[in-house]
Amino acid sequence: MNFNRNTASGRTSSLVKGFFPGLTYVDKRSPVHRIHPLVKLVMLFCFSLTVIATPSWAGETILFCLLMIFYALAGLGPVFISRKLRFIFIFGLLIFLVQILAVKEGILLWDIQLGPVHLSAWSKGLLGGLSMMLRFVNIIGSSYLFVATTDPNRLAYALMQAGLPYRFGFMLVTALRFIPVFYLELEQVKNAQMAKGIEMEGLSPRNLLRAVRYLLVPLVISALSKVDVLAISMESRAFGLYPTRTYMHPQDLSGSDRVAIIAVPLIFLLFYLLFAS
To answer: Where are the transmembrane segments (predicted)?
Structure first.
């Protein structure tokens, strides 16, 4: 009985991990990976603004094709996209279906009566749903492409060299470096609690409350301990004594990078004006 329950819980856990995959940096040597982090940040910002502002489904479709081209240039193929963005596509399809059934404007495309349920689709609902679905997929997909192709350390150092106070930059680097540490510690705490006979798998409210009690509290205590050790180490090394810092790996902007930072917003602005008119 316990074996069957544990097997079912393990399958549920595997399903959840597959449905909500982790978003992490993927180390490759692609043209997209080699782009300067600040240039990619500007591209992400301009792309997201254009996605939000573009009023037509045709413009959203072109932006989606552009996004898929960048995924291909980054060496992240269809298998990678289907595995990592599965939930995004499913949720986008749900938005599309809700929009079709909710909007009753335009030309009637089809009308079905299924017993007491009356379903109809209209042209504005179809085009509006397609636009909203693509807008959602484009924003989330571009954000993940940025995360998957940008080394967080390079991004933090580039922001600091661009003018971000190095205290904030150090906070960003430290947070990014502690993510895998806390994830490993969470797994260790979970395995230790399960070894004591405490059931931690499953999606029931009771198991969620038990997870908060037996996982979150030890993890918070461990995090506070690590933060205390880090603070003592920083004070012993006189962190913040000097107003400026030098960098072991400078992230200087080349001439082409500076041109790209200026050209990218102009290109997306022209794209928006083309479809807005």
So the answer is: 38-55, 61-81, 88-110, 130-147, 168-186, 255-275
